[in-house]
Amino acid sequence: MTMAKITASVYTSHVPAIGAALDLGKSGEPYWQPVFKGYEFSKHWMAENKPDVIFLVYNDHATAFSLDMIPTFAIGCADSFTPADEGWGPRPVPVVQGHPELAAHIAQSVIQQDFDLTIVNKMDVDHGLTVPLSLMCGQPQAWPCPVIPFAVNVVQYPVPSGRRCFELGKAIRKAIESFDKPLNVQIWGTGGMSHQLQGPRAGLINKEFDNAFLDQLIDDPEGLASKPHIDYVREAGSEGIELVMWLIARGAMADVAGGPVPTVAHRFYHVPASNTAVGHLILENK
Amino acid sequence: MTMAKITASVYTSHVPAIGAALDLGKSGEPYWQPVFKGYEFSKHWMAENKPDVIFLVYNDHATAFSLDMIPTFAIGCADSFTPADEGWGPRPVPVVQGHPELAAHIAQSVIQQDFDLTIVNKMDVDHGLTVPLSLMCGQPQAWPCPVIPFAVNVVQYPVPSGRRCFELGKAIRKAIESFDKPLNVQIWGTGGMSHQLQGPRAGLINKEFDNAFLDQLIDDPEGLASKPHIDYVREAGSEGIELVMWLIARGAMADVAGGPVPTVAHRFYHVPASNTAVGHLILENK
Amino acid sequence: MPLDKPYLDVPGTTIFDAEQSRLGYHLNQFCMSLMKAANRERFKADERAYLDEWAMTEEQKQAVLARDLNRCIKAGGNIYFLAKIGATDGKSFQQMAGSMTGMTEEEYRDMMIGGGRSAEGNRVLGEDGTAQAHRQPQGRAGQKTTS
Amino acid sequence: MPLDKPYLDVPGTTIFDAEQSRLGYHLNQFCMSLMKAANRERFKADERAYLDEWAMTEEQKQAVLARDLNRCIKAGGNIYFLAKIGATDGKSFQQMAGSMTGMTEEEYRDMMIGGGRSAEGNRVLGEDGTAQAHRQPQGRAGQKTTS
Ligand SMILES: [Fe+3]
Ligand SMILES: [Fe+3]
């Protein structure tokens, strides 16, 4: 192998309370036990399938990006990214090391494929990025590999469509697989599943929607990409819209470009974690 | 008329020295006289064709955007924009009033047409935006109408392609003409023409290229949109790449969407202003 | 504006679009300032004085002082920004979200453990689900008025 | 990296791509700081001390102190950022651009009035135009060595 390759995609919710539970040593409590149990397999899988780089799609929750500047898509090209203070003080987790060389390569390639990225060279990262790392890697002294943060605007409307996200995933795949170093790259899509954090409708959970989403994400991502925003809001809550980010990771898998169908290495679903339904999936390229 | 309409497009270089010449009262000097003479018609034309809003495409010159965050396309949605201090102190020109309502409408529509804009709610504007206003409006106490700043990255590569810019112009046209207030909107494309500000090749000017560019911009913008970046760099200097922004304004004209061919109300070309060839064009939709 | 806002008929939900963003700009930027520990201290020491440093409306300031997140959202706030106020108060996202329903903390937590709020009746304005206007506030406070 | 860099064969020209940007990050951010009058004053009062506040390489600092813009660009600087140094010195863009050619201010100005530098011989490395490496520095300094 001489070129970089996407070997697998990982999908997971990034609930802040999960980070707090871990950081405060509550992961053994009855409330949290079933959540972390769902990631036991994943931690072993990560140890056995350690990537060289993780391309991590998430959304910033009004942390690095205020209302002064709201990028639709932002790629982190810095050497490192510090865990943010979201108001509770920064999470006690390792600094995230970037991969500026691959990130710059992806930025160049994806912009030349007509995606209008914002290039970010300085950024703190919030729970949207660090909670998935904690879930998949536990509580190490350092994260197992460099991470390229890729932030999607799902805070201020209009947010990018599912279709746009899916197409972006395809472009990212092309970009990564044209990088001439033999890197094992995983792409992660985070956020979701059904949840609503605001108003009298707070607490909405829709298990049927979530499980149908997981089914379709595996078997028919192209079709899933056509789902309009309003369906997410109506069925999965106003913050359920975060699920469009999963389509970026899915669009980067081999089958979408005519390759073999991915293997479902792991699937997990649980309600609740705080206000949220937790969903998790690992797909391997063959 | 009940909807907003693009009535004309204006194209002009935005050389900082032109602003300085005006601000320091040097516009009557022999060096500057021919430059300002080329805009005499334009000032009258502006007075007679006063728009309700100007959609002004320009590039930020490392002013509002540092290397921390580099948006490919950024739309200014603020109430107002202050002339920036670029190191010489701010230009003594009026504060630029925005049009947040139309800007937000355009942002929403253009993002839904798959352009991944960055929404900006706070931004100082540099010579790229204020010099065209000075050239077209002179030295008034207040600018004649609100302005929506639209900043394009042409500083750090990769910059968007001419094709992408042209397609964006089409999307902006659709957005503006779906706004349900009878606004007379002009779209301006600024920057260029041939110039190079760096290295032993500084001072490059290519009159043949520039005039061919003007010809093709008028008659065959679709073909012009296919010109690759490297042609601009090689033929028009490293900063000549700014000309891709003219394609955004041109793409928003009626003929591109099947309407009538625009009228050339004015055309002007002069060498030099400081390091730069000055080009200027006014196209009216019929 | 002729652009579609298909999300206006979802009950109990305010979508943070450009219009809300403009309305809430200063409120939300105030919230962002609470990401610095020193600002949190200053805010806690004298909330009113700290709020007065921001170009917020009086209604926005009162809504913050009252910790009424529904009022904050109506005034242009977005939950991800407003969460910084809750964080400053040492509250969790669950406590913040629950506070917008009228339920007690326990009621809301129990609802979530029981599988969360159903989408039934809560998809479109005018149905009869728990998030509809005629059923507010929810929980004990709400039940009292109907029992 | 297999991505095309078709711009590497243009003489006398450095395209500011991601690689240059990474190289020049601290240098360029230093330049941005000069957009504040107070920082310009501090820089002018003690250039070395001000530069030492930034995580720049010694070569970058020396290039700034020498006002050698070609060296600055080689070290990752971009002209739009570097222009803030010139502005601090009260220099125009024409003076800055000219300084990179080896010409005197008058020579450069006269070249521009005469229609600017021709593209002939300056499109591709290895031709014989005025921007080619074997013809540097230009102007009187350059002519001396060949006469
Ligand atoms: Fe989230
Ligand atoms: Fe410019």
Automatic annotation (TrEMBL), chains A, B:
Gene3D superfamilies: LigB-like. It comes from the Bacteria. It holds the Pfam family LigB. Residues 10-278 form the Extradiol ring-cleavage dioxygenase class III enzyme subunit B domain. CDD domains: PCA_45_Dioxygenase_B (cd07364). InterPro entries: PCA_45_Dioxygenase_B (IPR034937), Xdiol_dOase_suB (IPR004183). One of its GO terms (molecular function) is ferrous iron binding. This is Protocatechuate 4,5-dioxygenase subunit beta. The lineage of its organism: Bacteria, Pseudomonadati, Pseudomonadota, Betaproteobacteria, Burkholderiales.
Automatic annotation (TrEMBL), chains C, D:
Residues 27-112 form the Extradiol ring-cleavage dioxygenase LigAB LigA subunit domain. Residues 115-147 are annotated as: Disordered. It comes from the Bacteria. InterPro entries: LigA_sf, PCA_LigA, Xdiol_dOase_LigA. This is Extradiol ring-cleavage dioxygenase LigAB LigA subunit domain-containing protein. It comes from Polaromonas eurypsychrophila.
